[in-house]
UniProtKB/TrEMBL annotation:
GO terms for biological process: pentose catabolic process; pentose-phosphate shunt. Belongs to the ribulose-phosphate 3-epimerase family. The gene is rpe. Its cofactor is Co(2+); Mn(2+); Zn(2+); Fe(2+). A divalent metal cation binds at H32, D34, H65, D174. This is Ribulose-phosphate 3-epimerase. It comes from Enterococcus saccharolyticus 30_1.
Length: 216
């Protein structure tokens, strides 16, 4: 099942409701929410209070990507705020297995995320528990960066492991996604596509969504 997850990182924060309704109306499947703490990544965005404010304005699942150190400390708060999927970075805690368990215990879908420099081998022992695996296709922290080609091999590896072991995770990609790179990731085995600047930095986000959907 192919899904499109617009990232509100590139939306107008003074008009979040308008920008979320715009992508929902035009066929988005998830709302991707980037949480940054200025520690794990060199940028600061938003916290559980904003997720809570967004929850009632859309029916779409909220795909919450935590780019924060010690994510364990905030899992409950994001679950309570209304997250449907919570993603934690393998690099953000020495206790990634516990962090995934904590998400599942909240009855929220659990996602593991790896940076471009992190191998799939680093997460192999938690893959059976995960509902989604996010392969970062840029270094996290900012929207509008260029797709890193070397990450495609990891998408293929995860698709093979899924097939071989009967795992149930979706494979998500995030960073530098435009129609051309979406197509490359699709062919490698990804099925959930995050796009921020491609959708929101354009005159017509509706046309951009249409262009992405055409190649997916
Ligand atoms: C980057 C974030 C992304 C970001 C993607 O750290 O995780 O979700 O919004 O932005 P684009 O699509 O512009 O690369
Ligand atoms: Zn993200």
């Amino acid at each position: 099942m192919i899904k499109l997850a617009p990232s509100i990182l590139s939306a107008d924060f003074a008009n979040l409701q308008r920008d979320i309704e715009l992508v929902e109306k035009n066929g988005a499947d998830y709302i991707h929410i980037d949480v940054m703490d200025g520690q794990f990544v060199p940028n600061i965005t938003l916290g559980p209070n904003v997720v809570k404010a967004i929850r009632p304005i859309t029916k779409l699942p909220l795909d919450v990507h935590l780019m924060i150190t010690q994510p364990e400390n905030y899992i409950h708060a994001f679950a309570e705020a209304g997250a449907d999927i919570i993603g934690v970075h393998a690099e953000a805690t020495p206790h990634i297995h516990r962090a995934i368990q904590m998400i599942l215990n909240e009855n929220v879908k659990a996602e593991i995320v790896i940076n471009p420099g992190t191998p799939v081998a680093a997460i192999q022992h938690v893959l059976s528990m995960c509902d989604q695996v996010l392969v970062m296709t840029v270094n996290p922290g900012f929207g509008g960066q260029s797709f890193i080609e070397e990450t495609v091999a990891k998408i293929k590896e995860l698709a093979q492991l899924k097939e071989k072991n009967g795992y149930h995770y979706d494979i998500e990609v995030d960073g530098g996604i435009v129609p051309k790179t979406a197509r490359i990731c699709l062919e490698a085995g990804a099925n959930v596509f995050v796009a921020g600047s491609y959708i929101y930095d354009a005159d017509s986000p509706a046309d951009q969504i249409k262009a992405l959907k055409e190649v997916l």
